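Whiteboard transcription, Tuesday session. T.W. wrote the C-alpha cells on the left side:
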C-alpha cells in the first residue's frame, strides 16, 4: 500500500479486485444533517478494480456493504455505488471497473484511514483508491 498525503490516498493491491452494489438511499439530506451547522466535511473515495474482479467482489461484498451500512446508520453516507464495466445498470459477467463512495469524515486523514481498511482491498478487488475532499454544490 502506498500513501500519497495529504492530497490523496493511493492504495495499491497486487491481487485482483471484487465489485459491490451498495444498498440504501443517501442520508446526507436528512433533517439531522440539514440542522447540524457543524456537520463533517465530505470526501470522495474513488477506487479502481483490477481486471476480472467480479468473483472477488462478490465474495467480499457482505463485509464491504456492512461498512457502508455503518456510515449510513451514522448519517454520514452521501452516495456509494459501483462503476459498471459496460453501459448497463446490471453489467452481468462484465462486472465493474471500480467504485465511488462519498461520505463525511472528521478529516482527510480519517477518510484515508477508512478507505485503506476496505474489505475490497484485503480481497484484492481494488488496484488503487484515491481520497479527496468533496464539496457538494448542486442540487
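and on the right, the sequence the group agreed on:
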Amino acid at each position: 500500500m502506498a500513501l500519497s498525503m495529504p492530497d490523496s490516498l493511493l492504495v495499491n493491491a497486487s491481487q485482483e479486485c471484487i465489485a459491490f452494489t451498495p444498498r440504501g438511499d443517501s442520508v446526507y439530506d436528512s433533517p439531522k444533517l440539514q440542522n447540524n451547522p457543524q456537520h463533517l466535511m465530505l470526501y470522495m473515495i474513488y477506487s479502481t478494480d483490477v481486471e476480472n474482479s467480479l468473483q472477488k467482489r462478490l465474495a467480499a461484498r457482505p463485509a464491504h456493504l456492512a461498512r457502508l451500512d455503518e456510515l449510513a446508520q451514522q448519517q454520514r453516507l452521501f452516495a456509494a455505488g459501483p462503476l459498471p464495466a459496460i453501459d448497463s445498470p446490471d453489467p452481468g459477467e462484465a462486472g465493474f471497473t471500480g467504485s465511488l463512495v462519498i461520505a463525511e469524515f472528521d478529516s482527510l486523514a480519517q477518510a484515508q484511514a477508512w478507505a485503506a481498511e476496505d474489505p475490497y482491498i484485503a480481497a484484492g478487488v481494488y488496484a488503487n483508491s484515491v481520497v479527496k475532499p468533496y464539496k457538494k454544490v448542486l442540487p
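Someone added at the bottom: Residues 1-37 have pLDDT under 50 and may be disordered.
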